[in-house]
């Protein structure tokens, strides 16, 4: 086993595949079927850092919006390791020099690439820790490297410091050494693997060049399956239609539609699942509960010690509840327990409104300027409404939905080849060539929630006050080109049926109608995916299909209304206007145009 882990002889690869099938650990996976882990990964699988992943939900608080999203990061990491080995095996078949030792390191790194995640995944890292520690940077990739070393020591694996550095580089997708010298790090990696360019090995698990990697291929398919969104995001053919040309991972020209679909799927999942309104409300409540309990439980200090960090998983919320019962007089624990009680009874923070930041503002000012602090909303409240808002009444969520490269087209960083291409990069071309592409690849949104617990008429009054202040703040910061979508009367509570929530919404567009029509006609959005070509505006045939779909959804709505167990808080799309709604009126006045959306009669 140790011989193969250190074997850099490409001729021994066939013997290695046979050895894996004999001693490997077989796992049954809902996505990939049988997943087999090799010798090194099998030992790492039994370590504390990897086993801890069973207690981390892959989608964090999203399960409060999608009840079946209960899959763990352990399954995702095992699936990612499986795909990493499949990619390496395919590349070896193309004539690339691949050794057993490289496969072992790739697989082990893929298995451990998420061990540094905290409870509730990115919410812990991007929301909770910055609120507690300020500008003190902490990244789960760095903790993954520390826990990887911990796992190697725990399992007494024969892995050198140099190999640990290589695995860390694979996990992060960067060849930078620990001292920050990227050139030295890259030279060390190339020297270890015996070739002049090892960039492709850093593109298998975490592809920093364009985002096409086994991590994304696994989680898109797994998350879509487990949330039940109905999309079959299977991009595994990309891994069997690739080749390394001058150190870069390139894809066959036949996979151009699949590449377009991969990046579109990422944006779609962020819009409809990862940044779902109710899921985001649950995440904000989890963050508030952690912040309230932190002065007593010192949760944030666990990230400084790998041993203490290993005790953190999603059961942390239960620990907070038990601590509050043991010490009912503690105000911090009582506040945290009250928030969790609201979460358990699905009294989520009420979504009030959201705004899409104008594209021109993003391009001119940058993504960093697209955030809207709660203080700005409070400063623009309308005193004539008879409601006084404080910052504690609001929660702002600043979101970004893109294809993986921010404002850039990821296809501009992805190269294609044809069947008769040579091994030179001059025979490849950019994947964005020859197809219609949208003008924009990133959308910034700002969403506001009412965190204040209130019922009845008070709820409606506070929601209207929040919406009025939010609209003024958005207009003052982003100008009149912003698009605002808001709840009509504050009844989009998580306690209501999801179809009722969608019916009680209105959309307010602050962009003039003529300008909106001109921009719409000038840009024909086309998304070409594995399922074919989808164009906008829809064709008559597509409009007929959409009408039939709306009819089926109305029938489903009637069934849900009679079913007391249908408390699924799943919206039809990520934009806040339900499928089955159409524009019924539009008045053109001096200034902004107000579009009122309501359910079809």
Task: Describe the SSE topology.
Elements: H1 2-5, H2 13-23, E1 25-29, E2 33-37, H3 39-45, H4 48-51, H5 73-93, H6 100-111, H7 122-133, H8 140-154, H9 161-172, H10 182-193, H11 214-227, E3 242-245, E4 248-252, H12 256-274, H13 277-297, H14 306-309, H15 316-326, H16 331-344, E5 350-356, H17 359-365, H18 374-379, E6 394-402, E7 415-417, E8 429-430, E9 442-450, H19 456-478, E10 483-487, H20 498-503, E11 505-509, H21 513-522, E12 526-529, E13 532-535, H22 540-562, E14 581-587, E15 594-599
Parallel strand pairs: 4-7
Antiparallel strand pairs: 1-2, 3-4, 5-9, 5-10, 6-9, 7-8, 10-11, 12-13, 14-15
GO biological process, one term: dGTP catabolic process
Protein name: HD/PDEase domain-containing protein
Organism: Tetradesmus obliquus (Green alga)
Please describe what this structure looks like:
The chain has 601 residues and is of the alpha+beta class. The protein has a domain at 2-110 and 141-276: Hypothetical protein af1432, CATH 1.10.3210.10. The protein contains 22 helices and 15 strands. It has helices spanning 2-5, 13-23, 39-45, 48-51, 73-93, 100-111, 122-133, 140-154, 161-172, 182-193, 214-227, 256-274, 277-297, 306-309, 316-326, 331-344, 359-365, 374-379, 456-478, 498-503, 513-522, 540-562; strands spanning 25-29, 33-37, 242-245, 248-252, 350-356, 394-402, 415-417, 429-430, 442-450, 483-487, 505-509, 526-529, 532-535, 581-587, 594-599. The chain has a 5-stranded antiparallel sheet with strand order 6-9-5-10-11, sandwiched between helices. Strand 12 and strand 13 (532-535) form a beta hairpin. Helix 5 (73-93) runs antiparallel to helix 6. The longest helix has 23 residues, at 456-478. The radius of gyration is 26 Å and the shape is globular. The protein starts with a helix and ends with a strand. The relative contact order is 0.09. Residues 177-188, 490-537 and 563-601 have low confidence and may be disordered.
């Amino acid at each position: 086993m140790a011989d193969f882990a250190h074997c850099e002889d490409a001729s021994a690869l066939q013997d290695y595949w046979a050895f894996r099938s004999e001693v490997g650990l077989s796992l049954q996976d809902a996505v990939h079927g049988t997943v087999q882990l090799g010798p090194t990964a099998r030992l790492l699988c039994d370590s504390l850092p990897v086993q801890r992943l069973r207690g981390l939900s892959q989608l964090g608080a999203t399960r409060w919006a999608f009840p079946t999203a209960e899959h763990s990061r352990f399954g995702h990491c095992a699936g990612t390791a499986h795909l990493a080995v499949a990619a390496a095996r395919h590349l070896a078949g193309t004539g690339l020099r691949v050794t057993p030792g490289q496969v072992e390191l790739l697989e082990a790194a893929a298995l451990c690439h998420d061990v540094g995640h905290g409870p509730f995944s990115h919410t812990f890292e991007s929301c909770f820790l910055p609120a507690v520690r300020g500008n003190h940077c902490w990244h789960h990739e760095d903790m993954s490297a520390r826990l990887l070393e911990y796992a190697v020591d725990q399992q007494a694996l024969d892995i050198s410091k140099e190999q640990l550095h290589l695995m860390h580089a694979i996990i992060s997708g960067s060849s930078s050494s620990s001292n920050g010298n990227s050139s030295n790090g890259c030279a060390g990696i190339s020297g270890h693997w015996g070739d002049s360019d090892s960039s492709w090995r850093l593109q298998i698990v975490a592809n920093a060049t364009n985002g096409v990697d086994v991590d994304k291929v696994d989680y898109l398919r797994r998350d879509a399956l487990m949330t039940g969104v109905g999309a079959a995001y299977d991009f595994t053919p990309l891994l069997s239609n690739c080749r390394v040309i001058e150190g870069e991972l390139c894809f066959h020209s036949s996979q151009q539609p699949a590449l377009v679909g991969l990046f579109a799927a990422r944006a779609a999942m962020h819009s409809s699942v990862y940044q779902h309104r109710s899921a985001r409300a649950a995440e904000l409540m989890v963050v508030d509960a952690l912040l309230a309990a932190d002065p007593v439980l010192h949760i944030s200090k666990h990230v400084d010690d790998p041993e203490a960090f290993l005790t953190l998983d999603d059961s942390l919320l239960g620990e907070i509840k038990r601590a509050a019962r043991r010490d009912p007089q503690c105000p911090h624990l009582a506040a945290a327990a009250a928030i969790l009680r609201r979460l358990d009874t699905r009294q989520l923070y009420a979504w009030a409104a959201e705004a899409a930041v104008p594209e021109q503002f993003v391009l001119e000012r940058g993504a960093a300027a697209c955030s809207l602090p709660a203080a700005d909303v409070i400063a623009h409240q309308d005193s004539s409404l008879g409601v006084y808002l404080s910052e504690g009444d609001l929660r702002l969520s600043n979101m970004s939905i893109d294809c993986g490269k921010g404002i850039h087209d990821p296809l501009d960083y992805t190269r294609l080849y044809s069947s008769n291409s040579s091994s030179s990069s001059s025979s490849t071309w950019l994947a964005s060539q020859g197809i219609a592409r949208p003008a924009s690849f990133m959308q910034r949104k700002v969403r506001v929630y009412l965190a204040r617990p209130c019922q009845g008429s008070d709820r409606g009054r506070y929601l209207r006050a929040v919406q009025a202040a939010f609209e003024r703040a958005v207009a003052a910061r982003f100008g009149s080109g912003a698009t605002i979508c808001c709840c009509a009367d504050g009844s989009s509570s998580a306690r209501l049926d999801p179809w009722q929530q969608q019916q009680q919404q209105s959309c307010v567009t602050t962009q003039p109608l003529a300008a909106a029509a001109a921009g719409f006609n000038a840009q024909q959005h086309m998304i070409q995916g594995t399922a074919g070509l989808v164009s906008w505006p829809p064709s008559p045939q597509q409009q007929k299909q959409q009408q039939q779909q709306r009819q089926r959804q109305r029938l489903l709505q009637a069934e849900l209304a009679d079913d007391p167990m249908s408390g699924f808080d799943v919206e039809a799309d990520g934009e806040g206007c339900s499928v089955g709604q159409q524009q019924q009126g539009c008045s053109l006045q001096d200034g902004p145009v107000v579009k009122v959306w309501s359910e079809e009669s």
